[in-house]
Input
Amino acid sequence: MGVATTEFIDAAAVQSKYLGTDPAYVFVPHPVQDRTDTELRQMADDHLDKILALLVKRA
Output
């Protein structure tokens, strides 16, 4: 299971295909490096349910 920004959707698909894996990903809006702490916390809150669901499903 991985979390990445939308900038890496295509790269994740290519790498997964090449490696013969099918990992679960949650993609968040790009970029993240210039976001404030408040914005990052909100982004985490917005995606937490999906991340937790994938972790439980894969475990």
